[in-house]
């Protein structure tokens, strides 16, 4: 497929020359950016907050927070004191010590961020949970991790089976009407009284920082453990990929229950001393554009589903807001359809920069940088200091344009260090040759750009042709009637598999056989006859993870009448 590359817009970017950086960069250089390179005392929360509170950034706004009820801002000096207070509450009333698992289960609020930072200052391992988790999902995670402390709200408490979790010793409640007993503690009452001073717990770079549960294709969700050393990656990618500079106002739309909401919603931006916008509440196109306008957001990191929803809301809304502050837009989490990139050029006059990484990788690995050409549909090129390749099932590197396993050479700073309680699972990620194998299939073109094809297990083989479901889905959403599409291979006695598409229509379109035929022809014409779905089924909504990925596994289960498996990561 030939695509038109989008040229670089001239600018003063942190990463001016990608090729040169790729040749010469060494992670050792990044260590100089942290105070521990001189003091020997390591703690990510200290580097992200306290250190800036002693510099010219002291009175710089670190956090702009808003939701339908609150509208607040905090400087780095404020953040230092407030996270110290949270740490003191957790320490004095929850006995939190280095290595303890402290889980946070609540909607976004400033206190959520104070608590995460406070727990890290104590050397604890933080486990953030999406507020939408129901009881089973909460139990699985608290049980598997042996969580000792939980911070939640009175409303969410009913989804926490405290009596069935013997290792859970203290539950802090943030909200009104807290009834205290041996286990339950009123967080805010203690917080108000707590000292603003704290001696931070110094840790080893390899000590645990955060535990994100994520689902694979099989089994229960697994606990991916990251360590303080990941800050090297958080910091440098924030510099070179997000391109954060001193005057920027940055907005990452992700919830901290997802790795993007921690690595790039908390750690990266604050390590770089940036002003960080955090918005609670539900998604609404008007609110999103208004956020950009009100704060003068300059750098914006979101996800394809959100962009597609904005696209679906129409271009007229965009015109009602002044979005002139925006200078750099990025995306992560699922394939970024070329159609969305073209829409971005049309309405924002900016390129949307795709980035590829995973919960397991802790930070960005393959990206589009402001100073390189963007090829719409490509995830970009490996970050300097990162070796990426396409390998076969034995770990042999494949030449350009051959589809295979997307693999990364072990040794980047933010690589996961453990699957909690499951060393076998951890080992299963690696192949001979020190390759970390992502489970994604992709190819690399002659110019070193990587192109996502699908999860390894999702690739469809129909009449001997390999078809990546993403390619078909991308084409489908280009049709004006299609809001979202998920494509699977359905077993077929003659063709091996046939392509089946599940489609949610945009508002104002009616289901009909004519429309089905029209959509099929559209793909046939736009992509290839063999790529056109033989079957189309319309649904009001498609099953998606909270991070916006269509859950093809669930579509497959619907289709084949199989159990859907673990649904804890599925959005409402
Ligand atoms: C997918 C954490 C295409 C991919 C950030 C990966 C992507 C999985 C992209 C990780 C991208 C992520 N293009 N696919 N730019 N980024 N993915 O851990 O399949 O929730 O393996 O993401 O998302 O999902 P996770």
UniProtKB/TrEMBL annotation:
Gene Ontology BP, a term: acetyl-CoA biosynthetic process
Record Gene3D superfamilies: 3.30.300.30, N-terminal domain of ligase-like
AMP-binding enzyme C-terminal domain sequence ranges: 471-549
Pfam families: AMP-binding (PF00501), AMP-binding_C (PF13193)
InterPro entries in the record: AMP-bd_C (IPR025110), AMP-bd_C_sf (IPR045851), AMP-binding_CS (IPR020845), AMP-dep_synth/lig_dom (IPR000873), ANL_N_sf (IPR042099)
Transmembrane segments: none
Protein EC: 6.2.1.1
Enzymatic class: ligase
GO cellular component, one term: cytosol
SUPFAM superfamilies found in the cross-reference section: Acetyl-CoA synthetase-like
MF term (GO), any: acetate-CoA ligase activity
Domain named AMP-dependent synthetase/ligase: residues: 50-419
Keywords annotated in UniProt: Acetylation, ATP-binding, Ligase, Nucleotide-binding
Keyword presence, Protein biosynthesis: no
UniProt entry tagged with the keyword Ligase: yes
Assigned protein family: Belongs to the ATP-dependent AMP-binding enzyme family.
NCBIfam families: PRK04319.1
Stated name of the protein: acetate--CoA ligase
